[in-house]
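Predict the assembly for these two chains.
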Amino acid sequence: MTVAGTPAVATRVGRPFLGGRRFSLDWVGVLPFFAYVGIFLLLPTAVVGIGAFFNADGSFTLDNYAHLSRSYVFKATITTTLLSLVTALGGAFFGALLAYAIVTGNPNGMLRRLVVSASGVLAQFGGVTLAFAFIASIGSAGFVYLFAQSHGFDYYAHGIWLFELSGVALVYLYFQIPLMVLVFLPALDGIKPQWREATESLGGNTWHYWRYIAGPILFPSFIGAVLLLFANSFSAYATVNALINQGSPVLSQQIAAAISSEVGAAEPGFAKAIAIEMIVIVTVVTILYTLLQRRTARWL
Amino acid sequence: MKFARLTRHLGLAVVAFVVVTACGSTSSGTATCSTAKTATSASACGGMDALVAAAKAEGKLNVIALPRDWANYGAILDGFTAKYGIAITSDNPDGSSQDEVNAVQQLGTTSRAPDVLDVGMAVALANLTLFAPYKVATWSDILDTQKEPTGLWFQDYGGFMSIGYDSSKVPAITTMDDLLKSNYRGKVALNGNPKQANAALNGVMMANLASGGTLDDISKGVDFFHRLKQAGTFVPVQATTATVKNGTTPVVFDWDYLSAAHGKDVPAWKVFVPNNAILGGYYAQAINKNAPHPAAARLWEEYLYSDEGQNLWLKGLARPVRQAAMEKSGKVDKTAAAALPAVSGTPKFMSADQATAAKNYVVAHWDAAIS
């Protein structure tokens, strides 16, 4: 890969020059892409961001952004960030272990194909369906709980934690771990067995291999995957809403409360301001992810 | 470069396709009764038969936020289609009243916009400019306090706030304070978030009245739920038909007509209305002024306010607005009326100002009180 621009310029000069300067239409090829990004990403963001500067009767206001300092929004921001962080780290840890177990097996084996296709399905299994699956199985009237209770094991003795943040975190792991398997497998596949052999022929042991070879190579894509999982749970709504309907602990629920209140508490501008707050947080996360992706690409 | 040329052609093709589809814009069917859009009664449209003909010509009706298991709406939707042969598109059945209004505003004059709305009073009063005035044939049966004089909105059905419970799982409830006892640990739920849902806000208001509060100040109700939370009896999950059926929420604050419907799934389901806190509430009908099917929208209202439509609501254990008049004329479905939960005492109704004060307090204090 050439880094300096000089060789490219030399090539162009060396090419036979036919006629005058021709108007290139090559950019038309990327037009659909930019139209797509513009219509589905930039335009809505702009509409939301600008809309947050107006109140219900259409006059300019800074109140919506100022209201982000309300105590319950502040609390929801902390809760959402912590919940996303915990489920991202937990999902990444267990997902990476599972992915490693698969990679060490037969690359065309039954186990690998089974786990990968199951992960593809389970990573998309979320929302009310997933939440109710948990309620119906381990919930306070679920068959697992009733069975455990009748055998003297009351796991809700200190409160029904399924309807608290710890329960939400458990349910999130159900789609976070498979997603981690999907995004982390390619990175693990990039690790070549020869590197291990080279380490050993140079007198290194397992610790040296992980500390100086595999660890540094996998670390950026591991962190990249953590950030992806973070964004994944950060934006989740239906799953948590089906478990904790009261108190709107996460930001996406605060948006819902402000946008679809039938008791007259609708504050669409405020909902937009919360959305912008979420976009800012996710943008920071995405930038970090991109920077790290670039680093991974340099290594592998 | 081959690839660049290929992508360029592909790009041009996509652009051309987008332009072509954008130009071929859709247009909705026209009604035979040309005045349907502005008709303020069936006679203004040339009488009931002309309205039916015009509605049949439109052939479609868009409704929104009507759950099939809510106040017998499933049977009502099917009954309308069977009677007039008009297909109904039912959008977002579990949506809130505000979702209905949002849809009216966002879908504007498109053919997908909702034709008719069934909204809580707070939303109805806040959005008068979106509605077309219309008076159904049975207009005079509706009390003056239950309708807007020109017909922008008119109340349709209602009931009383209640506590429903599965008597096979929890002891009978005789006072509100029973819910603080350990027998009810992790079992008490609301139908929705009171910051969003009308039924839940009224649930908090009922607890408020039972705790000695007034309609003007809901703080004792919020405090009651705070105490439930501390006692460990309140669960934050939203009560739905599924959670009641499966037993996750065996005690639910909800409108009596919605609660009584759980009896289908849970035979031991009982509905309790505390004598010291009888809180009534009615929903209202309104027609979207930009209704894409104006005649069908008006015919739908005529159907709802006919004896047939009113009795269908009654079968869903909702109290239809014409119930008193129909009891007088003898047209009421007596079996259905007898199945309503018994209520003794004078019901209270929140005024618009009281509802506003209640929601302001709840928006500011609810999240902190129950977390």
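Confidence is low (pLDDT under 50) at residues 1-8, 10-31 of chain B. The CA atoms of residues 136 and 182 of chain B lie 51 Å apart.
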